[in-house]
Amino acid sequence: MIDQSSFRNAESLIRFGTEKLSSISNVPRLEAEVLLSDLLKINPIKFHTDDIGISPNVMDKFESMIESRFRGMPIAYLTGKKEFWSLNFEINPSVLVPRPETELLIENAIELLKYRESPRILELGTGSGVISIVLHKELVSPEITAIDISSEALNVAENNAHKYQITDINFLVSDWFREIKDEKYDLIISNPPYVDKENLSNEELFIIDMEPDIALYSESDGTSDLEFIIRNSSMFLEHGGWLMLEHAYDQSDYCMKEMKKAGYSEIKK
Ligand code: GLN
């Protein structure tokens, strides 16, 4: 418990948070400021310009946020949001926290389809929906189907689409291709689970431990879902269609080999 009598203003509370988070974060002050500014609904710049008083209620909430963060809870779950592609997305523990590297996947998809009208896209494992929503905003009238095995995740994705007034992404509960009938797509895109649970360092585990296992881990050294998607996607691709996958830094040779085996051409890193 914090001795509440010792906190009269935001600065002292931020110092408490910074100290507590210094063993788990490289940017403890920033994290403490983000959490407190979220609670107070103010711009963190105010911490540097104004002397901000703190109510006991805010102190209690901040203390419990710092405690959760200290135990590994991602900031995005504590604030319920995450910026991605300069947009703001709702996030909760039923979905992965969007990572900057996934923006790279999207950039490639945009490059591929930017001059196409109404490209047909299938996203596998949409989670919070960020990939499909960004593609919807960036491309010309795309027809997007986004599946996930988790209905909780799809709720988040639907809320995010709604927030950006997108009503025509076809969100579907499906175990990979199971509910996809005889459709063909110009692009199949996915950030599937690809983490090898057995080979994580303690630091890596700390970062991802509170995110959904189903979105992160895959059997066979992290490759089993990648393999399944590579083997089955060609049946759902138009002639000349593309499969785009995010994978771990050391799975690129594996993916290229599997794609070759499955008959893909123009395989690029
Ligand atoms: N990039 C994430 C990580 O390394 C994993 C995302 C995923 O498995 N799709 O923590």
Give, in order, the helices and strands: HHHHHEEHEHEHEEHHHHEH
Low-confidence stretches: none
Backbone CA Rg: 21 Å
Query: Judging from the principal axes of the Cα atoms, what is the shape?
Result: elongated
> Strand portion, in percent?
5-15%
What composes the largest sheet? Answer: 5 strands, parallel
Please count the helical segments.
13
Q: How many individual β-strands?
A: 7
Mean pLDDT: 96
Through-space gap between termini: 51 Å
Q: List all distinct small molecules, including ions and cofactors, that are bound in this structure.
A: glutamine
Overall structural class, as computed from helix and strand content, comes to alpha/beta
Helix content percent band = 40-55%
How are the strands of the biggest sheet laid out side by side? 5-4-3-6-7
Structure in words:
- By secondary structure, the chain is an alpha/beta fold.
- Helix 8 links the parallel strand 4 and strand 5.
- A five-stranded parallel beta sheet has the order 5-4-3-6-7, sandwiched between helices. Strands 1-2 form a two-stranded antiparallel sheet.
- It has helices at residues 10-21, 28-40, 46-49, 56-70, 75-79, 101-113, 130-138, 151-163, 202-208, 213-216, 219-222, 224-233, 252-261; strands spanning 81-84, 87-90, 120-124, 143-148, 170-173, 185-190, 237-245.
- Glutamine (GLN) binds next to loops.
